[in-house]
From TrEMBL:
<dbReference type="InterPro" id="IPR029751">
    <property type="entry name" value="Ribosomal_L25_dom"/>
</dbReference>
<dbReference type="GO" id="GO:0022625">
    <property type="term" value="C:cytosolic large ribosomal subunit"/>
</dbReference>
<comment type="function">
    <text>This is one of the proteins that binds to the 5S RNA in the ribosome where it forms part of the central protuberance.</text>
</comment>
<comment type="subunit">
    <text>Part of the 50S ribosomal subunit; part of the 5S rRNA/L5/L18/L25 subcomplex. Contacts the 5S rRNA. Binds to the 5S rRNA independently of L5 and L18.</text>
</comment>
<feature type="domain" description="Large ribosomal subunit protein bL25 beta">
    <location>
        <begin position="99"/>
        <end position="179"/>
    </location>
</feature>
<dbReference type="InterPro" id="IPR037121">
    <property type="entry name" value="Ribosomal_bL25_C"/>
</dbReference>
<keyword id="KW-0689">Ribosomal protein</keyword>
<dbReference type="InterPro" id="IPR020930">
    <property type="entry name" value="Ribosomal_uL5_bac-type"/>
</dbReference>
<dbReference type="GO" id="GO:0003735">
    <property type="term" value="F:structural constituent of ribosome"/>
</dbReference>
<feature type="domain" description="Large ribosomal subunit protein bL25 L25">
    <location>
        <begin position="6"/>
        <end position="90"/>
    </location>
</feature>
<dbReference type="InterPro" id="IPR020056">
    <property type="entry name" value="Rbsml_bL25/Gln-tRNA_synth_N"/>
</dbReference>
<dbReference type="GO" id="GO:0006412">
    <property type="term" value="P:translation"/>
</dbReference>
<dbReference type="GO" id="GO:0008097">
    <property type="term" value="F:5S rRNA binding"/>
</dbReference>
<dbReference type="InterPro" id="IPR020057">
    <property type="entry name" value="Ribosomal_bL25_b-dom"/>
</dbReference>
<dbReference type="InterPro" id="IPR001021">
    <property type="entry name" value="Ribosomal_bL25_long"/>
</dbReference>
<dbReference type="Pfam" id="PF01386">
    <property type="entry name" value="Ribosomal_L25p"/>
</dbReference>
<keyword id="KW-0699">rRNA-binding</keyword>
Amino acid sequence: MKSITIKGSQRESVGKVATKAVRNAGMVPCVIYGGKTPVHFAAEEKAFKSLVYTPNAHTVVIDLDGKTTNAVLQDIQFHPVSDRINHIDFFQLDDNKEIIMEVPVKVTGTSPGVLLGGVLNLNQRRLKVKALPKNLPDYVEANIAELQMGNKLYVTKLPTPNFKLMHPDNTVVAQVKISRAAMKAAQEAAKAEKGAAKKKK
């Protein structure tokens, strides 16, 4: 999985007044959990742009005055009015421990059902995976090449090399629904066949 580096400074004061001062300075207060003790730090709001405002999934290298920590974004809070980032929680990665995180679904292949006029519905745009940090995928591939009209693609049909999908087996990732136009065409074709059969009689 691709990684993003965020540079920040460790915070000594973590009270309400100090946190407000951090936000007023255009910084985001953050915490790293998962280690022996939580680590509080602050970084410029623009530093999180590539991490937060993207459909892609990333791990994070947090650089605090030269000391780096590998982590993943665990929780983010936004201001209810301005929608600016209020606070971010990170979780420290351990190379030997599996972690669960969401990654995007990447659709590949061409569905025969879509070519015949069906409509592709992507039911799951992101999926939860469980893996060691080194095996975290950038995305989960959903190949729709075998989906006929009315077919569904379940999580059990997705390739999962070196990771597990944390969803029930009956979870539908994508499906090809019959469009109104295709349904109307099928109904008209059926009427035409009946009409032709009557004339033969």
